[in-house]
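Design job #97: recover the sequence.
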């Protein structure tokens, strides 16, 4: 692959990320899908969002290597899953769990329904 091609592909991956984050109130970048999470952390994140009765979209980072790599740069967060609410990075499954246990996540998600 020519260097220009890789730069163009990375740019396209970043645009995909921006579009998904910008067009969905709750966006989860994860391994697998809502119906079939492919790792325990992704499963935890999905379970937490479902427990909050959140409407959310997902993107399977296993299906696109460049999105998987660029999402880490986009958020400055090294791990997957990654959850965004109203365009803002919230965190991974550990932070979602902390927010859920404190009630903060449900409060944040309830604001979206107003």
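Job complete. Output follows.
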């Amino acid at each position: 692959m020519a260097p220009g091609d890789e730069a163009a592909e990375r740019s396209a991956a970043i645009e995909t990320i921006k579009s998904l984050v910008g067009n969905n109130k709750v966006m989860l970048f994860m391994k697998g899908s809502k119906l079939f999470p492919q790792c325990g952390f992704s499963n935890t994140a999905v379970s937490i969002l479902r427990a909050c009765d959140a409407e959310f979209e997902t993107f399977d980072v296993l299906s696109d290597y460049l999105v998987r790599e660029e999402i880490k740069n986009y958020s400055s967060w090294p791990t997957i899953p990654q959850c965004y609410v109203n365009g803002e990075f919230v965190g991974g499954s550990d932070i979602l769990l902390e927010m859920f246990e404190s009630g903060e996540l449900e409060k944040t998600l309830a604001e979206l329904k107003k």
